[in-house]
Design brief:
alpha/beta, seven-stranded mixed beta sheet, Rossmann fold, binds S-adenosylmethionine, 7 strands
Length: about 240
């Protein structure tokens, strides 16, 4: 199998997307740069190039099973080395993307990728998401809020729902425990104004574990006191 065939074939079979030669070249550069930076900074535990294609790139793209990309404002919280936000931007250049990350080295890496690939309409914020949720510049300003591998569902909902207006949508990428985890979020959903609209199962090539997109729609206003100050949502989940 040639380089990035896994990504190309997976994008076609899972999402009916054909990646152009220039998109594949961007993904190849991103993968190589991720591996190079990873030797100095701990950006990802995944270092097998095939698994980067599958578990990072393709997995990020599966968010497209939960929304139709338009020129909407999308925020990826706890993006780490850019997942899922940057692969989505490579495939859907029209989205206006904000990446949020608390660790400076990861922020630097994301800014490097954005600059080197010439990606437009991408903000990379070095911040705790709890602070953004209480800032008028960000609160209620995004149509879609994404996160992968950041926090348990009740904590994640306190991070994400304040960033959306009514009608906005959370897409949380979760592992095989997603159905149980979602049930544990009933209280948080009620308080914060969310309703689970669906769980989308995702089976990635070369990955045994089933994954899920937990899709939550915002159906009523989030009370102003949420999110609580940095660290409290994780320490005392709703
Ligand atoms: N989403 C990426 C992925 O799937 O590869 C990174 C996942 S990593 C396990 C979780 C990331 O979330 C870390 O980089 C961490 O710094 C960031 N993070 C956790 N809590 C955060 C918060 N409250 N505000 C901003 N970033 C946060």
């Amino acid at each position: 199998m040639n380089e990035l065939d896994l990504l190309q074939d997976g994008a076609r079979s899972l999402l009916s997307i054909h990646l152009s030669a220039s998109q594949l070249e961007a993904f190849r550069w991103y993968r190589d740069e991720l591996l190079a930076w990873n030797e100095r900074y701990n950006l990802t535990a995944i270092t097998d190039p095939f698994l980067i294609e599958s578990k990072h790139f393709l997995d990020s793209l599966t968010c497209l099973l939960a929304f139709k990309p338009a020129d909407e404002r999308l925020i990826d919280v706890g993006t780490g080395a850019g997942f899922p936000g940057l692969p989505l931007k490579l495939v859907c250049p029209q989205i206006q993307l904000t990446l949020v990350e608390a660790t400076e080295k990861k922020v630097q890496f994301c800014r490097h990728v954005v600059a080197a690939l010439g990606l437009e309409n991408v903000d990379v914020l070095h911040a705790r998401v709890e602070e953004l949720g209480q800032d008028d510049h960000y609160r209620g300003r995004f149509q879609i809020a994404l996160a992968r591998a950041v926090a348990p569902m009740p904590v994640l909902l306190e991070y994400l729902l304040p960033l959306l207006p009514m009608g906005g949508r959370v897409v949380a990428q979760k592992g095989e425990m997603a159905p149980v985890e979602t049930q544990s979020a009933a209280q948080a959903l009620k308080i914060l104004g969310g309703r689970v609209s669906k769980l989308v199962p995702v089976d990635l090539p070369r990955v045994a574990e089933r994954r899920y997109l937990v899709v939550v729609d915002k159906i009523s206003e989030t009370p102003q006191k949420y999110p609580r100050r940095a660290g409290i949502p994780a320490k005392r989940p709703l």
